[in-house]
Amino acid sequence: MKRLLLLNGPNLNLLGQREPETYGSETLQKIIELVNETAAEAGYELDHFQSNHEGELIDKLQQSQNNVSGIIFNPAAYTHTSIAIRDAVSAIDVPVIEVHISNVHKREAFRHHSMIAPVSAGQIVGFGIEGYRMAAHGLLNMIEKEGR
User: Fold this and answer.
1) Over the chain, what is the mean pLDDT?
2) Cα 3-9-12 angle, rounded to 5 deg
3) Is the pLDDT assigned to residue 19 strictly greater than 80?
4) What span, in angstroms and rounded, lies between the C-alpha atoms of 62 and 51?
5) 74 is in an annotated binding site
6) Can you tell me the distance from the alpha carbon of 18 to that of 39, in angstroms, rounded to the nearest whole number?
7) CATH number of the domain that 73 lies in?
8) What is the spatial distance between Cα 146 and Cα 133, in angstroms, rounded to a whole number?
9) What average pLDDT does the segment 7-20 reach?
10) Active site at which residues (predicted)?
């Protein structure tokens, strides 16, 4: 069976509670359901993982190399700070779509730069949790075109 990985970084386990004016009222579980639905429609199984720890996210990226066809990744705050996560994304031969619920370019200046975008296959920002579904569609299209 073909597989995708949905990877979420720090504090995304608090969706629905944390800053609903910025991130909305939906939970991480709802995002998992949305992406799982989209993946299943295309004949893919979905693995999902969330961690508040940089090293665990890096481990998951490295383990994905021969196990998934693509990754939807919200690195959260690590987007702007983690060279280690950037290097892990760069080191694997799996397409990664970076996704953010809010439009990071309309927020604080420190959020305007992504360490991950230059090594990602694409980036989706500002569409709320619907951005995850958009990322899944884009990733699946990319995988199909590349024949992965």
Assistant:
1) 91
2) 105
3) no
4) 15
5) yes
6) 27
7) 3.40.50.9100
8) 20
9) 86
10) 23, 100
- Give me the residue label for tokens 């996210």: 57
Is 80 a known ligand-binding residue?
yes
Length in residues, the chain: 148
Pairing of strands 44-50, 122-125: unpaired
> Cβ-count burial of 35 within 10 angstroms (0-12 exposed, 13-18 middle, 19+ buried)?
buried
3-class SS at 50? strand
Domain count of the fold of the chain: 1
Tell me the catalytic residues: 23, 100
**Residue 104 structural domain:** 2-146
The pairing of strands 96-100 and 122-125 is parallel
Phi, psi of 62 (to 5 degrees): -65, -40
Encode pLDDT of 86-113 as tens digits: 999 999 999 999 999 987 777 667 667 7
CA–CA separation, 17 and 4 (whole Å): 27
